[in-house]
Amino acid sequence: MSWRRFVSFFRLYSQISTNIPVTGFRYMAPNTPHYILTVDDAILHGRYMYSASTSQATSIGFVHTFVNGYGITSQVLDLLTFLRREMAMWLRRYKENPFFDRSEHPHVPDVETASGLMDVMAVGNMLELATTIDRRCYLPSSLALKE
Amino acid sequence: MGTVRSMYHQLQSVIGRSYVISISGMPIHPLLVFRRSLVEFGAALVVYKETMGEKLSHSSTCTVDKVKEKTISYFQANYPNLLPRLQELINAHFEFLYWTGPKLSISRRTDDHRFFSKHNMNTPVMTKRRPLRDFIDAPLYPPVSYDDKENGEGLTKSPPRGTTDLSHRSPQPQDSTEGSTLAARNPQEVDGMANGGGGSNPDSSDPFHVGSQKQTARAGRSRMVHFQQADDDGGGYDHGFFGKKALAVGWPAQLSPENSRAILVRESSKLQGSYSEKQTDDLEDPMDVDSESVGGDDDDGSPGTHSSPISSRAGSIERPQEELEAAVIEEGDFPARNLRRGPRQVRDLETGRFPSHPKPDGGKKAGPLKGKPPTAKSQKGEGGKGKGFNSSEPNQSSKGKKRPAEAPAESSQGAKRPKASKGSGSKTSLHKKN
Q1: What percent of chain A has pLDDT over 70?
Q2: What Rg value do the Cα atoms of chain A yield, rounded?
Q3: Cβ-contact B280, B263 below 8 angstroms
Q4: Strand pairing report for B144-147 and B154-157
Q5: Cβ atoms B18, B195 nearer than 8 A
Q6: Which of B14, B67, B97 has the CB atom closest to A98's CB atom?
Q7: Mean pLDDT lowest for which of A12-21, A52-61, B308-317, B390-399?
Q8: pLDDT for B279 beyond 50
């Protein structure tokens, strides 16, 4: 799809969206080109976008999924893998320079702020208790259960 | 899993070294914040699972009991001192998965945030700004009562309900940073404080608890650096002294490899409390430590009371390094040093070979040419190796021998000299590269 057609589609979609009443049900038709704008820098992984500034919400959502099953939200099986990689990236950045320029690395939380520290702790707690909050570790064939 | 947890611990350590976390103006140990967040998260997880139960999902494997058991076993294995706090939170139905503690303020760590474990090293201002050892609103660890009778440094701690007994701690006045990133046990660590060197142990279950083995290791490290200090535990031999001074001074001539091995055996046996070595009794051991300070083993007169220039006696050990080196040099010759400083075999310019039999009169012709500045090749070949121990002796290199004979030929041929060496082919080019 060319850029011109995409822009025209976006205008059309915006027009349709604004014409639908608030109480109506909005849906996106299949095979609809779209893009997503995020208000913060985020990493796209497995059809989900993860932002460093929303790590606390990510961890809480993962616990919801673990406790209540996948009926409450989508499947996030590979989230821990992503978080491990993210933690490795954070560690590398802070090891290189703890006082790095925040504007150059938007995917690394700023621990100089309380919220940034909370984000680091949220991901860290998940990784610490990874064997507890991963359902795969409760399977009879899992290595963690055997141990 | 362990690797990721290790990375998180490293990140905690980096943050603790670089930043200061304060609660209403009072600094607190950074690891405490991480510990509190972890234990509250674990407790909230268990409580959430208990609350929800099997309402929305039914699983025969992931049950409430198993989740609770897994969480508790994890803390029991990794953070045993946090186990009482976890049980308290679970019993109190703590249900917040996010931070509910006091407001934190983070700032960069500077020299103003220094605090040493030794009480005498702290100024009153530093003592006043001592970091907290636990949260005031919700203590993570069993109650600790600070006794302010001795300038606020006395600490009486009741035995914790956890598994770790802290009664084996050193009888020194406790401070708030023992075992922490702010702790410093010897001047070397104190010097390294500005660089962020710390003794935090993120893997430890208790951020303030340092195991007995680690304490011993740190004490050993301290003795290594400061070999002048007397051994409190009667260990006797100082490996730091051995390793550092032996390399700095060099081996004396009397110290053959066999003798050195015997000394090593003797000193190692001295460390183990047994000594039976008679071959080195009459050996003047430059690496000997003062047997009087060791005590016990030297009553039989076997090791130790020698007139060694680098003995670790209180009188001689305080001599500066240069004086020690000079004293050792005066005493005897050093084979290893002579080998290192010996005449350098230089490849011949014409033939490209090393001289097989140096001429006896080569030393007379080895001096620099009169009236002719040294060329770049000659400077490169000498390399400044003639200086130092044998600098008074003339350079006996083959280059130096042949140069006087070649001098007139070079002056007459001038720039044709490289062409004359074409016959040697690759050897000449090899020498040029070198």
Answers
A1: 72
A2: 20
A3: yes
A4: antiparallel
A5: no
A6: B14
A7: B308-317
A8: no
User: Which residue of A91, A99, A131, A141 to mutate against B (max B Cβ within 10 Å)?
Assistant: A91
Rounded Cα distance, B79 and B207, in Å: 10
Per the rule left: phi > 0, alpha: psi between -120 and 50, beta: everything else, B303 is: beta
Give residue limits of the domains in chain A: 1-35, 38-146
> Phi, psi at residue B249, to the nearest 5°?
-90, -40
Q: Which two tokens stand for residue B398?
A: 């083959």
Secondary structure of B357-416 in HEC code, one letter for each residue: CCCCCHHHHCCCCCCCCCCHHHHHHHCCCCCCCCCCCCCCCHHHHHHHHHHHHHHHHHHH
Residue A63's nearest CA partner among A120, A8, A140, A125 is A125
* Token pair recorded at residue B279: 């071959």
Partner-chain contact B57 A88, CB within 8 Å: no
Using a CB-CB cut-off of 8 Å, the residues of chain A touching B103 are 114
List own/partner pairs for A68-77 with CB under 8 A and 24 or more apart: A68/B52, A68/B55, A68/B56, A68/B57, A69/B56, A69/B57, A69/B59, A70/B57, A71/B56, A71/B57, A72/B56, A74/A48, A76/A46, A76/A48, A77/A136
Q: How far is B63 from chain A (nearest CA, A)?
A: 9
Quick one: closest CA in B to A61, which residue?
B97
Residues in Cβ contact with A93 at an 8 Å cutoff, skipping those fewer than 6 apart: A100, A105, A108
Give the H/E segment covering residue B147. Answer: strand B144-147
Q: Token match 């980096």: residue?
A: B14
Residues present in chain A in total? 147
More reliable by pLDDT, B374 or B140:
B140
Distance between CA atoms of residues A105 and B430, nearest Å: 51
Selection from B386, B392, B17, B403 nearest residue B199 by Cα? B17
How far is B139 from B28, CA to CA, in rounded Å?
A: 12
User: How many other β-carbons are positioned within 10 Å of the β-carbon of residue A30?
Assistant: 5
How far apart (Å, rounded) are the C-alpha atoms in residues B15 and B32?
Answer: 12
ipTM of this predicted complex?
0.79
H or E element that contains B146:
strand B144-147
